[in-house]
Design goal:
single chain, six-stranded mixed beta sheet, 17 strands, mainly beta
């Protein structure tokens, strides 16, 4: 388990970050849930970040395996996306090549995550993807003043949600899919 900030030097105990990421970099809380008894991640704030041409923007990734881990109190705020493939993504059913986790659900509990003032452009039609686990749904997700536009053609960006509960307020572009 780790909190991964690829685009800045690794540091312990970081709670608030101001960063700029380019090309393949991203900011993410990732690879949680590989071990059954691993610590959780809580009270992390990423603020005033800019992503240009990256694959992912702000990402939470958990393995589709049994785990007692958790993510709670994460805040992503004042973030600019420029041509980012996955600006906002929760990937709770991560299982590359279907090895070591087929047919399993994530045991990692994701709750009380805030996305505030996330704006800019998405390189893909799905600008907000909240793909949570059926066995351990995400809860308390808050989208506030999210304004992401699809860069290609005149098609609007969209949201995609699976087992994600929460609220949206202020600007909601794309339209929220939270329930």
């Amino acid at each position: 388990m780790f909190v991964r900030f690829i685009c800045i030097p690794r540091a312990e105990g970081i709670q608030t970050l101001s960063i700029a990421c380019y090309e393949l970099d991203f900011t993410g809380i990732g690879s949680l849930g590989w071990e059954l008894d691993e610590p959780g991640v809580q009270n992390i704030t990423v603020t005033m970040a800019t992503f240009r041409g990256t694959q992912n923007g702000v990402r939470i990734k958990t393995w589709a395996r049994a785990s007692h881990g958790f993510v709670t109190g994460a805040v992503f705020q004042h973030v600019t996306m420029v041509n980012v493939s996955n600006p906002i993504i929760i990937e709770q059913r991560y299982c590359p090549d279907k090895n070591n986790c087929p047919n399993q659900v994530s045991g990692v509990k994701i709750k009380d995550v805030v996305y505030d003032d996330i704006h800019g452009t998405s390189a893909t039609k799905v600008a907000v993807k909240l793909d949570c686990s059926q066995g351990n749904p995400c809860s308390g997700i808050r989208l506030k003043d999210v304004n992401l536009n699809y860069v290609r053609g005149n098609q609007p960006a969209v949201s995609s949600c699976a087992y994600a509960a929460g609220t949206a307020s202020g600007i909601s572009n794309p339209t929220s899919c939270l329930y």
